[in-house]
Amino acid sequence: MQSKQRFGTIAIAYLLGILTGTLAGFSIAMLALWHIGGDPFHRQMAQFNKRWLNRATLQIAGRRDSPYAVLQHVGRSSGRQYVTPVMAAPIPGGFTIPLAYGDTSDWYRNLLAKGECQLEWQGNTYRVNKPELVDAAAIESAFPIFWRGPMLSYGVNHFVKVSQAEQPAINKVEQKAKLA
Predict the structure, then answer these.
(1) Domain assignment present for 10
(2) Residues spanned by the domain of 154
(3) Is residue 157 domain-shared with residue 103, that is, in the same domain?
(4) φ, ψ for residue 39, nearest 5 deg
(5) Based on the domain organization, do 76 and 45 belong to the same domain?
(6) Is residue 139 within 8 Å of residue 96, measured between CB atoms?
(7) pTM above 0.85, yes or no
(8) How far is CA 169 from CA 6, 126, 139, 150, 174, in A?
(9) Among 68, 63, 65, CA closest to 53
(10) CA-to-CA distance for 98 and 89, rounded, in angstroms?
């Protein structure tokens, strides 16, 4: 009985999103699926985003005036270089990054294994280290108000706090000017 009810709720939310054709309708559908679908749905969304949405987001991430940053990290097993778009906000001494998919995200596990990475944010590249898992209550005020609502709605409870390493930030505009 519960699975029929779950399917009905998902179907209604999905149809609402399609029929309205609006961002609000789509958001309602995704929010319903996020809460009803549980871990299997979260893993499917993470895989979809990793394969498709991240490619599009990387086109704007790390640039000035972009809410997204680019996390450059090394694979814990493969040693391969990866880039992942993430939301980030500055805090005193570093940055904070929400763990939208929890502590099993590959980028987070890679960051823990290596202990450091680079973060491109607002046109600059920062070397960050000392990842620390923190609760939302301790850090969510670092994000603009228009990001807090969706993070709360989707149940983002944990954030990664990283410290900025002693190495100064690299300004990409200045770097390109020096090379020219």
Answers:
(1) yes
(2) 68-176
(3) yes
(4) -60, -40
(5) no
(6) yes
(7) no
(8) 49, 5, 23, 30, 11
(9) 68
(10) 9
Structure tokens at 170: 């690299």
Residues 6+ apart with CB under 8 A from 114: 73, 74, 76
**97-111 tens-digit pLDDT:** 888 777 888 899 999
Q: Are residues 90 and 124 in the same domain?
A: yes
Report the chain's mean pLDDT, rounded to a whole number. 75
pLDDT in tens, 110-141: 999 999 999 999 999 999 999 998 887 777 67
Residues 6 or more apart whose CB falls under 8 angstroms from that of 82 comprise 72, 73, 74, 75, 106, 107, 110
Which CATH number belongs to the domain containing residue 148 in this structure? 2.30.110.10
User: What tokens does 67 get?
Assistant: 């809410």
Question: Which residue is listed with tokens 């294994």?
Answer: 113
17 CB neighbour count, 10 Å cutoff: 21
- What SS3 state is found at 61? coil
11 & 50 share domain: yes
Q: DSSP per residue over 126-148, as a string?
A: EEEEEEEEEEHHHHGGGS-HHHH
State how many domains the chain has: 2
Residues 87 and 169 in one domain: yes
Q: Is residue 62 part of a domain?
A: no
Is position 161 within any domain? yes
